[in-house]
Write a structure and sequence with these properties.
The protein is 61% helix and 8% strand. By secondary structure, it is an alpha/beta fold. The protein has a five-stranded parallel β-sheet with strand order 2-1-3-4-5, with helices on both faces. Helix 2 packs across helix 5, helix 3 packs across helix 4 and helix 8 packs across helix 12. The longest helix has 19 residues.
Length: 304
């Protein structure tokens, strides 16, 4: 089990220096404020130097202050109400540019995701998805948009996908009733974590399906009931969370499964292109006709 920030503080508190104990006590009582302070600001607030704050973070086992700050933010995000989120976000942005702040935060989330994600779990998740009899995808509230996007493309590729977005308990277990050891369950949840997604993933694991979690932390409740955990940073914007990094992870999964099943996928999309063209699914103009003719002539020439 992953040790939380508070557990680390409790365990190491007797061994800390006087200055470090001041930091520890402040975090224990005011973690909601400390989570968004720089190391210099936190040090100034409790009366110690910035270097003492940095040493405190490493003493707790973090690679640096940013990692400890990330742990504090993860700890509070599931506890803040929507109103509190607005207040925190307004304080962070201040009088600066909203669009610059949000886009910079999204860039940071993707960079952090690259550092955090397990390549081993990602590769195993791709294999499990590619070999599954049925792929179940479950996400609620804002995560339902991610589940729907992922389901759309995986269904084009495989045709054996069930996207579930109900929070009705009876309906939920009816949807998962047939899940078994040849299937895959992909659960998606970010703070504030959905209890229904956690319960569904435990149900899938009990049925011996392969279970994949897409979430933001190893302390997430669905990380504990999963075979493979794909971590994606989901920094707080205001009342909503940024879904840029989670969507990037989903894009990567889709691309990787296409590469894994390339021959089958190419055939599927060739058939789909014929259907789309014959039934006018997409707008077409003279340039499209020219491209089709050139591609056809090239194919005939290669066949000779």
């Amino acid at each position: 089990m992953v040790e939380s920030l508070m557990q680390r503080i409790e365990r190491l508190l007797p061994k800390l220096s006087k200055g470090q104990k001041l930091i520890a006590k402040y975090i224990q009582t005011e973690y909601g404020k400390a989570a968004f302070m720089t190391a210099a600001k936190l040090g100034e607030t409790v009366g110690v130097s910035e270097s003492t704050v940095v040493r405190f973070a490493t003493e707790l086992g973090y690679s640096g202050y940013p990692k400890m700050q990330q742990a504090m933010q993860e700890m509070i995000r599931d506890k803040l109400t929507s109103f509190q989120r607005i207040e925190v976000s307004q304080a962070r942005i201040g009088g600066g540019s909203v669009i610059e702040h949000v886009l910079s935060s999204d860039i940071d989330n993707i960079k952090q995701t690259i550092e955090d994600i397990s390549q081993e779990d990602f590769d195993k998740a791709v294999k499990a998805i590619s070999n599954a009899k049925t792929i179940y995808i479950y996400g609620l509230r804002s995560s339902s948009t991610l589940a729907g996007f992922m389901g759309y493309y995986l269904n084009l590729i495989f045709g054996n996908v069930k996207v579930i977005s109900t929070a009705d308990r009876a309906r939920l277990y009816e949807e998962f009733n047939r899940i078994g050891n040849e299937d895959v369950m992909i659960g998606i949840t970010f703070p504030r974590y959905s209890h229904h997604v956690s319960a569904a993933m435990k149900f899938a694991m009990d049925r011996h399906a392969k279970v994949i979690a897409i979430t933001d932390s190893m302390n997430s409740p669905i990380a504990k009931t999963s075979d493979y955990v794909l971590l994606a940073r989901s920094g707080m914007a205001t009342i909503v969370d940024s879904l840029v990094a989670p969507l990037s992870i989903i894009n990567a999964l889709i691309v990787a499964t296409v590469i894994e099943k390339k021959d089958d996928v190419v055939k599927t999309f060739k058939d789909l292109e014929i259907i789309w063209n014959n039934y006018g699914v997409y707008n077409r103009d003279a340039n499209d006709e020219t491209i089709d003719t050139n591609m056809k002539n090239k194919g005939e020439a290669n066949a000779l």
